[in-house]
């Protein structure tokens, strides 16, 4: 059964976090690409976007997949410039972050299903 997306206060807050995170990420990449400030701003933007995904219920698939990709690539960018420009560390960071986020959202879905069966 597919849940429909309803605008609630939580979804509005999640959308605000996603928009702020994307805006900060774009500004950080344009203004200070590869600098320490750019890396810190990118990590902050990624945390904002991840929090936005957590608050978004139910997360539409067309939003979840691109956000997981953006967050993973951002983590790879931050790793690349923080780890002495190591491509291997960057690729590993992208794969690990994507796996953790994907697993986290499937785990949340499973917990909701099991919780609904407790009553």
Description of the structure:
Helices cover 81% and strands 0% of the residues. The protein has helices spanning 9-31, 36-55, 61-82, 87-117. The two termini are 19 Å apart. It has one domain (9-117). The radius of gyration is 16 Å and the shape is flat. The protein is mainly α and 119 residues long. Keywords: Membrane, Transmembrane, Transmembrane helix. This is Integral membrane protein. The chain crosses the membrane at residues 12-31, 37-56, 63-81, 87-105. It comes from Lactiplantibacillus brownii.
Write a concise keyword list for the protein shown above.
mainly alpha; 4 helices; 0% strand; transmembrane; Integral membrane protein; transmembrane helix; membrane
Instruction: Give the radius of gyration.
Output: 16 Å
Average of per-residue pLDDT values: 88
**Which stretches are poorly predicted, pLDDT < 50 over at least 5 residues?**
none
Main beta sheet: strand number and arrangement? none
Overall strand count: 0
Gap between N and C termini: 19 Å
What's the number of helices?
Answer: 4
Q: β content, as a range? A: under 5%
Domain module count: 1
Keywords: Membrane, Transmembrane, Transmembrane helix
Protein name: Integral membrane protein
Organism: Lactiplantibacillus brownii
Transmembrane segments: 12-31, 37-56, 63-81, 87-105
């Amino acid at each position: 059964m597919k849940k429909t997306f309803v605008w609630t206060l939580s979804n509005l807050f999640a959308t605000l976090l996603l928009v702020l995170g994307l805006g900060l990420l774009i500004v950080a990449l344009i203004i200070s690409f590869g600098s320490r400030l750019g890396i810190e701003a990118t990590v902050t933007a990624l945390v904002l976007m991840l929090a936005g995904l957590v608050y978004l219920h139910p997360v539409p698939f067309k939003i979840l997949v691109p956000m997981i990709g953006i967050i993973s690539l951002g983590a790879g960018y931050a790793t690349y410039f923080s780890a002495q420009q190591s491509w291997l560390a960057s690729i590993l960071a992208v794969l690990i972050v994507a796996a953790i986020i994907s697993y986290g959202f499937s785990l949340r879905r499973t917990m909701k299903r099991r919780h609904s069966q407790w009553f």
